[in-house]
Amino acid sequence: MIQVSEHFKFTNGQLRESDLAYLKLLGDIQSSSCFKGQKDRICLDLKISTQADNVSVDLDTSYYVGVTRLAEIDRAFFIHSKLDDEHGEVNVLKMFFEALQEPENFEHLDDLYDIRLHERPVLIEQKKDLLSPFLIIQFASLVKRLVTKGLKKSYYPVMENLTNRIKGKILIGQQLKNNVPKSKATSTFCAFQEFGADTKVNRFIKYVLRVARIYLARYNFDDQGELNNIFNFCSPPFSSVSDQRFNAGFVYRETNPFYKIYNDIVHLGNLILRMESFSVSQKKADSTYYVPPYWIDMSRLFELYVFKKLRESFPLKGQVSYHRKFSYQEPDFILNTDEHQVIIDAKYKPRYAHVNISIDDARQLSGYSRLRTIQEEFGHINPNDYCILDCLIVYSDQANEINPDLADSSTWQLESKYIRIYKTGIALPIL
User: Fold this and answer.
1) For labelling, which of 56, 150, 240, 378 has a CA lying 20 to 30 Å from the CA of 41?
2) Beta carbons of 386 and 412 less than 8 angstroms apart
3) pLDDT (tens place) for every residue of the chain, 431 residues total
């Protein structure tokens, strides 16, 4: 397996000698892996070209971590965070777990990861598997929200051998098979409908909760105790739900808008069961097993993480808006308080701790600040009220605090080249 960092360019002298020697034997190749098949979102790009006796290898990565296998070569790739160093690795799972403490983030998870279940699986060490605990964290957090709301109750079929009474429909075949030969004259086998939480979909969720809890025990996860508390919180409401085994592929569609969360939970439950079947049926050793290729978008995860931190600094409703659309434009965040009227962008770019922000990022923020609809959002109704708005870039900076007070504008660093454009760093959790 070839291991490299995300968002870096690797050439001949920057790859491990064994990896470079293998790649040079392959001949001319150009291959790439894209996020959800979108050609403008390249996760990994490999180019090998031969000119005379010189073999050139170029390997480009982007803002994605995960594992993959390029179709043209028989070698897997593991892409880890660019912030990983000898002092520690970025705790991606903790970032995700903390981001999900903000309920609104559940509405922005569709484009966070890409799982290739149809592709050939990759053998990895268990500690490098981010996908399985990633799915379990999201599943448990969603079930917690469901339990807080209350399990959906509906009518479900029941077959029971009743004594001295009849309910619903008499099952003639079961009656002749179970009661008549045994001379149980007072017993009647009946089928009827009951109203309650013991429905098939709730049985599915209960089963996946049990599987996920066993599966999670294999991982050394920093917030495992807190995650176990979520499982403990979710278990009691399912005490009235029957036990039933399920395989991946359970089909359910909830049309009631109040319970639409069931659709996401069932989808994740099927993914977890698929992952569990991978690990059980194809496990190689105690510390290695197969997983499907996957990508996690670190720039999107950083946005979710920053949103949680902004909500901690600005907890009142309506102070921070995330990905609101203004004239087909979507700034990351809009901060609107009595003290602050700011357009905020999250940039997963640690280099901003040492260099000025790029002209493209400055143009992006400046463009947002000049949108009439955004000016009106801040109460600037008349053209005479329009003004230059404050713009802030929040970037990743391991030298900064992990829980900074983003409301303290004195910590914002003014960009010398621009008017009212600031930047501030935030540290990411480390393993």
Assistant:
1) 56
2) no
3) 888 888 888 877 677 888 888 787 777 888 888 999 888 899 998 888 887 677 888 889 999 999 998 877 778 889 988 887 766 788 888 899 999 999 899 988 988 999 988 888 888 887 788 888 889 999 999 999 999 999 998 888 888 888 888 888 888 888 888 888 888 888 888 888 888 888 899 999 999 999 988 877 777 666 677 888 899 999 999 998 989 999 888 999 998 889 999 999 999 999 998 887 766 555 555 577 788 899 999 999 999 999 999 999 998 988 999 988 887 888 999 999 888 889 999 999 989 988 999 999 999 998 888 888 888 888 887 777 778 888 999 999 888 888 888 888 888 999 888 888 999 999 998 87
Q: Which two tokens stand for residue 87?
A: 């002092």
Q: Which two tokens stand for residue 250?
A: 């359970």
Q: How far apart are CA 187 and CA 133, in angstroms?
A: 49
| Residue 17 neighbours by CB under 8 Å, 6+ apart | none
**What is this structure's pTM?**
0.86
Amino acid identity for residue 325 in this structure: K
| 8 Å CB contact between 235 and 193 | no
Given a contact cutoff of 8 angstroms between Cβ atoms, the answer to whether 369 and 422 are in contact is: no
* 169-170 and 187-196 beta bridge pairing: antiparallel
Residue 171 within any structural domain of the chain: yes
Domain-located, residue 75: yes
The answer on 279 and 206 residing in a single domain is yes
The answer to whether position 205 is within a domain reads yes
d(CA 364, CA 326): 14
Give the residue from 167, 196, 225 where a domain finishes.
196
